[in-house]
Amino acid sequence: MSLEQLLSSLTIFVLAILVGFEVISKVPATLHTPLMSGANSIHGIVLVGAMLIAAVANNPLSFVLSVVAVAFASMNVVGGYLVTDRMLEMFKKRPASGAARAGTGAGAGTGAGAGTGAGAGTGAGAGTGAGSKAAGSKAEA
Amino acid sequence: MSLDTLIRLVYIVAAAAFVIGLHMMNSPATARRGNQVSAVGMAGAVVGTILLIASGSVTATGTLIWPIIAVGIVVGGGAGAYSARTVKMTAMPQLVSIFNAMGGGAAALVAIDEFVKAAGVGPHTLGTAEVVATVLDVVIGSVTFTGSLIAAGKLQGIVTGTPVKLPAGQAVNVVLAVVALVTALYLIFVGQILGVLVLLLVAALVFGVTMVLPIGGADMPVVISLLNAFTGTAVAMAGFVIDNPVLIIAGALVGASGGILTKLMADAMNRSIMNIIVGGFGTGDAVAGAAGTTPGAAGGAVRELTVDDAAIQLTYAQHVIIVPGYGLAVAQAQHATAELAGLLEERGVDVKYAIHPVAGRMPGHMNVLLAEANVPYPQLWEMEDINPEFQRADVALVLGANDVTNPAARSDPSSPIYGMPILDVDKAANIIVVKRSMRPGYAGIDNLLYADPKTGMLFGDAKDVLTQLIAAVKALQE
Question: Residue A27 and residue B26: Cβ atoms within 8 Å?
Fold first, then answer.
């Protein structure tokens, strides 16, 4: 690595850290577990590195090291994204009874914001319930 | 435009997708799409790399390239997909921890392989910057690998959740640190000898174990968060080793996010990260002393409720606040909780859930469990918003939460948890505590709440008690 390359890599590194701080610090506590899991999948990008070392592996030790690296990284990527999606899917799921219950909850809840109230009010059916719920929480935020 | 240039552009798009995806995870409305954006970026980077290797744009002198990549992706990806689809939501934190271990391990292996290849050529082939990055990658990646596996084991119950005090633990850690430092300096300044790197690797792997073993199960959320940040950093270092900007960007992003999250978690528990790593509650003598003195103040006056009493209190209340905690997660009682809440709402009771930031096993874990049980999102209230509501609540139902409800955190400066933000459960008119036994919580101190005359205790497994409560409430309705 030339000094030039090193300096540009360090620049990227430092800026990416600062971007990470900015992007992350705004996430509400509710989403921390999915966020951790989502961030966890992103570091699965090491799969790219693992494949690049596999491309130049030409002795038994390197074969072993790179195949294990590719397998580990693939598990990180595939499992990470799927499990995060499963978690986030649950935040959206609104079966009919759930929507009805949301209506009661928001209606009776003294502290519930106007956004939530409106969202639950229109959410009569299951499908619209999910949609308006999303709109409601946005308005609340 | 050459393929090489095109793929480099794809890497930039992937990096942007990671940033945008994380940003979209800020709000429940866009979170899922955010994760998908990030996944598309990842897929682009992976497919692009495969094209890059296939076209020969990068040095592809390997003799087993495609079998290695195919076997690795099929085996690893298959294991990941299978476990992600089948895991129970209550066991999800340990799965995330295992995925994290995989990432850290892969990052360390990339650097080790680069080192092995260079060492085959001669002892001084890597530049100083590469060696420094290699050393950091191997150390951080290996600590993460074993540390995350131990953390997962503790959450799963394979490794004991109670803090394990190693004989001469501090001495072992000092020896490991000295070995790591000496080998690292040797590699950087003297010569790139494979044996020395192996020594460094072993020291780091053992340190991962000795670092996490002494930490109690209740602190695992903070530890997993910290290890997640470690993996990000290790991946960024791997990016320096193989000179790949997308690894550097993604790794640094995750390093920063994990760092922020870890700090938030530790703040919520009013503890420093150092305090947790060194081993705090449940291990120190000072805490044992405090535990010995408080029973005099709190003990004796506990009132035990019958299930029927509790059912009547709940059914005829107007405002009920449910306070779920670690015990609910352990008993997997989230569905029973939601069923009870649904029954009460049918009777016109207003039900809210009070979520302490560190309830459950990971930040936000309780929200995920309750979402799985179809609890509507607007009913989940965060600590700052729900605390003023407790004085209006007729009943606070505490399900397996302990230290986060202890008023001693507000009132008793001598308490080890003094200053920790808590849920003001004691302000409610009546308090029902569902708890397995009078055993003190993780902090090892008695909960003043239980001695409160307004408090009634229901002893038993959270799920069993809830099932009985549901039956009792139903009986009242008939």
Answer: yes
Residue B63: DSSP 8-state = S
User: Each residue of A84-124: pLDDT tens digit?
Assistant: 999 888 765 444 343 333 333 333 333 333 333 333 333 33
Chain A residue numbers with beta carbons less than 8 Å from the beta carbon of B345 are 101, 104-105
Predicted pLDDT of residue B139 = 97
Place of tokens 């930039």: B12
Return the axis-axis angle of helices A32-42 and B92-121, rounded to nearest 10°.
20
Higher-confidence position of B437 and B237: B237
> Closest Cα of chain A to B326: distance in Å?
15
CA distances from B216 to B283, B286, B441 (A): 9, 16, 12
Amino acid at position A3, single letter: L
The residues in B 223-242 lying below 8 A from A, measured between CB atoms, are 224-225, 228, 231-232, 235-236, 238-240, 242
Q: Within an 8 Å CB–CB cutoff, is residue B73 touching chain A?
A: yes
Distances (CA, A) of B281 to A75, B161, B400, B415: 35, 13, 19, 11
| Cβ within 8 Å, pair B103-A87 | no
Q: Do B102 and A73 touch (CB under 8 A)?
A: yes
Question: How far away is chain B from the Cα of A122, in angstroms, using its nearest Cα?
Answer: 15
Confidence band of A141 (pLDDT split at 50, 70, 90): very low
Q: How far is A13 from chain B (nearest CA, A)?
A: 6
Confidence of residue B281 (pLDDT cuts 50, 70, 90): very low
- The one-character DSSP state at B305 is P
Question: If you average pLDDT over residues B309-328, what whole number do you get?
Answer: 88
Sign of the C-alpha dihedral computed for residues B308, B310, B311 and B316 taken in this order: positive
What is the rounded distance in angstroms from the CA atom of residue B152 to the CA atom of residue A30?
Answer: 22
Q: CA-to-CA distance for B124 and B197, rounded, in angstroms?
A: 14
Interface check for A114 against chain B (CB to CB < 8 A): the answer is: no
Q: What pLDDT, on a 0 to 100 scale, did the predictor assign at position B127? A: 86
Q: Which residues of B are catalytic?
A: 403
